[in-house]
Here is the input.
Amino acid sequence: MIRRGAHISFVDNGEVIIANREVLKERIAGRVSSKQAGIAREDNILSIDFINKNYAMVKVNLVIVDKLFTDYLSLIKNNGQWTIVSKTFYAQAHRSI
Here is the structure.
């Protein structure tokens, strides 16, 4: 879960954007989903770096329709639940099989 108030960072048309999760939700709502396109998603955890038992950095790759997203996620565990407090991502064209 991406925490309310989390920072979402990416580059859009050559400009660094630091936004909130509502901006991310709007971007996702504006595109065709893998399910709608009839293409299976590919989600892969590439690495997890535990700073201690309550802090971690995670790198994931997600193939959604025709794009490969690489996400770096900062997570904090509070009251037994992991939450994303920061997400930086990069998207590039990808050919789906």
Remarks:
- The longest strand covers residues 81-93.
- The chain is about 15% helix and 65% strand.
